[in-house]
Amino acid sequence: MKFTVDSAVLTDSVNWVSRSLSTRPIMTALLGIVIEAGSDITLSASDLETSAKSSFSADIKEKGRVLVPGRLLAEISRALPNKPVSFNLDGSRVLVTAGAAKFTLPTLPINEYPNLPVMPDTSGSIASDLFATAVNQVAVAAGRDDSLPTLTGIHVDINKEVITFAATDRYRLAVREINWSPNNPEETTTALLRARTLADAAKTISSSKNISFSVAPNTSNERLIGFTTEQKSMTSRQLDGAFPPYRHLLPSESIATAVIEVAALLDSVRRVALVTDKTVPLRLKFSDNSLHLEAGAGDEATATEELQISYTGEAIDIAFNPTFLADGLNALGTTYVNIAFTGSNKPAVLSGKNKVDGEIDSSYRYLLMPMRYAS
């Protein structure tokens, strides 16, 4: 095997597939990235749950296939100078050269490398930037506790031409609806996929125009979801278990509504929360077109701040986890936030608005549970 490739192209491809490398492999081969030189160069990696491939054009002198340590290749590719990179298989070692930089990589037994799963048939296509935005908006609410695996996932609900993404860690719920182009206009199915996997995919493929989205039928033994662009692909096995029902949690009515500039509210939340631990409640009092924020109590440090806002409805005295509140505000992507309340001890729903008196963008909703605070 012998080829030469642009360093930026190599780094992009290695970064993509290295996301699927196993951190606790059940076999040594899963520590590696497969480099295959054929008509193009194809890199692939897998942890048996998620598998990724990336292809690119190169000046190929000799064809071949080899398995090299993945994390080492990733570190080397990121550190190489901006010059053409040459790969040359010499016996059981791979010589990597870029300008004056030279590396020699050991190889791993490629005959022990497992066959990667076959990509399911394409279900439809989505604009990449829309997909990436939707995934990032809901991933912030996904759980981090692996002992509750269903809450570490993003629930994908396909209903004809609408896909709904949802995630929750029990303290907040994020829901985003987007339109897509299904191959079957009557397509309806659901899937539960690791939030980390979807978020990683969204980070890298947003630079392409469209992605093909593939969902294996629920009757399939593989239970795979796949994403494909012109040069990159990823498959991931779905999580076991049922995602909790969530639609009934989103209230259809409210007793009060606040419209606030996102940037101003974020600044205030961050300042006032400085005096407390990130898990200590941030108290917010809404009334008469004003918002009073306060944190801390007793002999400890305290902070307060006032904001002029647009407010309608009865007075609300409520407390939130400041980190969770900031996450929701950051995820909106709009100039203003519309906060709908159903009570001081009930969840509030954040949605976006581009103008104070504009329409509410209900395609994204971020439900936040209140916290108890010391009076």
Automatic annotation (TrEMBL):
Gene3D superfamilies: DNA Polymerase III, subunit A, domain 2
Residues annotated as domain DNA polymerase III beta sliding clamp C-terminal: 248-372
Pfam families in the record: DNA_pol3_beta (PF00712), DNA_pol3_beta_2 (PF02767), DNA_pol3_beta_3 (PF02768)
Boundaries of every DNA polymerase III beta sliding clamp central domain copy: 126-244
Gene Ontology CC terms, in alphabetical order: cytoplasm; DNA polymerase III complex
GO biological process: DNA strand elongation involved in DNA replication
SUPFAM superfamilies, per database record: DNA clamp
Coiled coil regions in record: none
Domain of life: Bacteria
Subcellular location: Cytoplasm
Boundaries of every DNA polymerase III beta sliding clamp N-terminal domain copy: 1-117
Keyword field: Cytoplasm, DNA replication, DNA-binding, DNA-directed DNA polymerase, Nucleotidyltransferase, Transferase
MF term (GO), any: DNA-directed DNA polymerase activity
Predominant location: cytoplasm
NCBIfam families assigned: dnan
PANTHER family on file: BETA SLIDING CLAMP, DNA POLYMERASE III SUBUNIT BETA
Family named by the database record: Belongs to the beta sliding clamp family.
Record text on subunit structure and interactions: Forms a ring-shaped head-to-tail homodimer around DNA.
Function according to Swiss-Prot or TrEMBL: Confers DNA tethering and processivity to DNA polymerases and other proteins. Acts as a clamp, forming a ring around DNA (a reaction catalyzed by the clamp-loading complex) which diffuses in an ATP-independent manner freely and bidirectionally along dsDNA. Initially characterized for its ability to contact the catalytic subunit of DNA polymerase III (Pol III), a complex, multichain enzyme responsible for most of the replicative synthesis in bacteria; Pol III exhibits 3'-5' exonuclease proofreading activity.
Protein name: Beta sliding clamp
Species assigned in the record: Actinobacteria bacterium BACL2 MAG-121001-bin67
